[in-house]
Amino acid sequence: MKITGVIGAGEFRDDGSLVDVRGKIFLERRIAEGAARMIAFVSTTFKRGGEEFTQVSGMKWIPSKGWAFTGGDYTVAVVGNKGVFIETAKPDFNKIFEELQG
Q1: What ranges do the domains of the chain cover?
Q2: Distance between CA atoms of 15 and 24, rounded to whole angstroms?
Q3: What is the pLDDT of residues 14-32, one digit of tens each?
Q4: Mapped to the 3 state alphabet, what secondary structure does the chain carry?
Q5: 5: which of 43, 45, 82, 90 fits an S-S bond (Cβ 3.0–4.6 Å)?
């Protein structure tokens, strides 16, 4: 939450349930729950896609570690079961991924 542009951070389970969320974007529980479901869905899709593309291409895309999506004015970046929501124009994305990977 201390990185410029980050407006929310959370930890989510693979089933789309919440572990913990912080930040002004998540003041309404329904937004946090929607974020958790979106992250679980996209993470599962990328894991399956990575497995399939690894088999087809012979390139190593697994295990899946993380992803990012940008749309409109915002970006979500996820590594494992932790993610941050960001105002796209403001942050240093290298720093964000370094922090997420711990």
Answers
A1: 6-101
A2: 24
A3: 999 999 999 988 889 999 9
A4: CCCCCEEEEEEECCCCCEEEEECHHHCCHHHHHHHHHHHHHHHHHHHHHHHHHHHHHCCCCCCCCEEEEEECCEEEEEECCEEEEEECCCCCHHHHHHHHHC
A5: 90
User: What CA–CA distance (Å, rounded) separates 6 from 84?
Assistant: 7
* Residue 51 phi, psi (nearest 5): -65, -45
Measure the CA–CA gap between 77 and 68, rounded to whole angstroms.
Answer: 4
Residue 80 falls in which region: left (phi positive, over 0), alpha (psi -120 to 50) or beta: left
Beta-bridge mates of residue 21: 10
Give CA–CA dist 14/85, Å, rounded: 18
Just give the CATH number of 6-101: 3.30.450.30
**Sign, Cα dihedral of 83, 87, 93, 95:** negative
